[in-house]
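Input/output pair, single chain:
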Amino acid sequence: MLAFLNYGVWALVFNSIVGGIIGIPMYFKATKWLPKFRWDKQAFRDIFSFGIYTTGTSLFNYLIGNIDYLLIGKLLGSVVLGYYSFAFIVTNIIRNQIVAIINKVSYPVYATIQDNKKEMLNLFLKIVSINNLVVYPLILGLLLFCEFLIPMFFGHKWDNSISLVKILSIAVLIQMLNNSHTMLFRAAGAVRLEFGLQILKAVCFYIPLIGLGAYYFGVKGAAMGFTFAVFLGVVVSFYFMNKLFGLKIKQTIETLKTSLLMLIICWPTMELLKNIVDWKVCIFCYIFTVVSVYIISGKSEILAIWNILKSFSSNK
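Output:
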């Protein structure tokens, strides 16, 4: 209504705050509870000792998630930033949405077993396996066929983003190897370690690698710098997961065998097939190959995904 009345961007501002203005009083009325101003030193100390690190982690997560935009915009200009932003959004929106669903279901389970590191590690590996089983075929499909899909869905004006989509898709594939590891640290109470790792990644990996890549090699260099920073972050995270939970590389490979097998079979096969047959036929072959690998090797993981989706639907 406000947009129709020519209030412009203020319509969006109003929409952002009106929910809280209206919702909070209604919540108090429905619950018959009102907050009281009472100081509890011990409660403050307990909450602050945990919350200060989780808040700091969130801030550095935000920095890591946006520092590439800042550096590319500063060094290469707004037009190049637009191409990069498009590529980043296309490659990460799938991962973010799917991981958010699974994390919403899994975090309460972490909380119930936080005193048993072995069970926590097993749950983490199961979550990573499920995440990868869903995300890997989608991201690999995007990597393989983005030169056809992007012009078809978004037009040729985004053709300059195609090479960036390919590079950033690889970053997502790497990142998925230990996606949700921060929830594992947090549930185990290792919030100080989690915070320290995010500082290390931001200061030592993301800022210098993206900045140097953009300065010397342009936007593709920035994307490759981001991808290499993701790789180093995964290596460091695995090191500390080994120290805290005894995670071995062999365990990870065994857990991810279905999605890794799909990756090993489909990537080179489809790259070769694209040079022989029409890309639409190639996509059909890709889907058939993914489904075949999953049916043969990943029945238990598919059942776990189905149960998570049912749980999420019932709690929605």
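The chain is about 85% helix and 0% strand. The mean pLDDT is 84.
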